[in-house]
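RECORD TYPE: inverse folding
INPUT: structure tokens
STRUCTURE:
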């Protein structure tokens, strides 16, 4: 079985841009830290239970950092309880009112999403930065093509990569003037060409971590494709330290898509990587429905492992040799099961789903036990 580790395959190597590292709560962003996956709640923040319930679903999907909008005092008042209940760091989304930023920092937010130039005078910027320093907050500068400063639009005539980068550099300067360096930057656009060009230019002139996103990407299918093309292009080039896939879908779906993107590029491994065929008249079982059911049933598996689901023997055995567990369709409702690339036994249609789920759970437990044993040996336990 071929290793999933891209470092053992030089032709798959991605050399990540070297950025300095900051901390968002207990999550390292930048440097050699894993690329973190983010999403954003869409419940009213004042609805503490609803917001925490949504955060919990995102945590189960594997989110590393989650953003919560704080447009008013009711939201920042609720934030303290939300932060306390969350298992992952909370980013408070602040737009124009500097007092919300101060309140969010004091409520325990790990990061403030704010554009320093949008919150008023130098004095107000200093007050927010002081609150961030006092409370151990990072700051995410969030430049967006849809809300560029009027002066930059007049200068460039329209949103363009140069305008987004100049806006980012202007905001960075405001923080650096206050001797604040715990920041990351995003230069998002819904036009993926514009976003990719802006991020590429910015990556050449700053050393801070970059937060990737194609904003207002669309629904689950269209937005996934658009984000994968734009963000995938950047990630493949080594650009990006933390990501958010912006979809008109539930936040946990953004997390799952984000992980699938990183898994496809060998940048993160979490959960089951499914290799499956599109199905044809040769299929020995209903591949489409089987894959859908298995993906739903296996969402609780966090351990990295691979599963191939192929409908017939044309490509099935070859793909199965490359995965931890393989299912290849056979005749008369009797299908081949491969374990670690070797044909092991057969399974009937009626038992297939439960059998595969059981095999995956067993393999995950074995991997986890092996990892734990290796750590014990390493630490002399």
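DESIGNED SEQUENCE:
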């Amino acid at each position: 079985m071929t290793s999933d580790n891209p470092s053992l395959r030089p032709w798959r190597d991605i050399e990540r841009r070297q950025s300095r590292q900051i901390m968002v709560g207990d999550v390292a962003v930048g440097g050699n830290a894993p690329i973190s996956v983010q999403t954003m709640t869409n419940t009213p923040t004042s609805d503490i239970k609803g917001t925490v319930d949504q955060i919990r679903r995102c945590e189960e999907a594997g989110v590393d950092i989650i953003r919560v909008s704080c447009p008013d005092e009711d939201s920042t008042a609720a934030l303290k309880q939300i932060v306390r209940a969350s298992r992952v760091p909370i980013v408070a989304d602040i737009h124009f009112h500097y007092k919300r930023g101060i309140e969010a920092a004091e409520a325990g937010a790990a990061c403030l999403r704010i554009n320093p130039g949008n919150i008023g005078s130098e004095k107000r910027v200093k007050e927010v930065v002081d609150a961030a320093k006092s409370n151990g907050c990072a700051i995410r500068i969030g430049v967006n093509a849809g809300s560029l400063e009027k002066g930059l639009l007049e200068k460039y005539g329209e949103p363009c990569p140069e305008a987004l980068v100049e806006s980012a550099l202007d905001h960075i300067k405001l923080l650096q003037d206050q001797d604040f360096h715990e920041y990351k930057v995003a230069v998002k656009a819904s036009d993926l060409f514009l976003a990719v060009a802006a991020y590429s230019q910015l990556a050449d002139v700053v050393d801070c971590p970059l937060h990737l996103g194609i904003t207002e990407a669309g629904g689950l299918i269209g937005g996934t494709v658009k984000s994968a093309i734009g963000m995938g292009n950047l990630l493949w080039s080594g650009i990006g330290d933390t990501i958010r896939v912006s979809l008109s879908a539930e936040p946990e779906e953004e997390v799952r898509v984000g992980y699938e993107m990183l898994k496809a590029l060998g940048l993160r491994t979490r959960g089951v990587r499914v290799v499956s065929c599109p199905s044809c008249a040769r299929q020995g079982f209903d591949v489409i429905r089987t894959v859908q059911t298995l993906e739903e049933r296996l969402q609780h598996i966090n351990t990295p492992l691979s599963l191939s689901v192929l409908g017939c023997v044309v490509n099935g055995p070859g793909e199965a040799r490359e995965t931890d567990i393989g299912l290849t369709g056979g005749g008369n409702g009797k299908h081949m099961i491969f374990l670690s690339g070797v044909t092991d036994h057969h399974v009937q249609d009626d038992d297939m789903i439960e059998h595969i789920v059981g095999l995956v759970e067993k393999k995950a437990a074995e991997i986890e036990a092996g990892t734990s044993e290796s750590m014990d040996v390493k630490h002399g336990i």
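NOTES: The chain has a mean pLDDT of 92.
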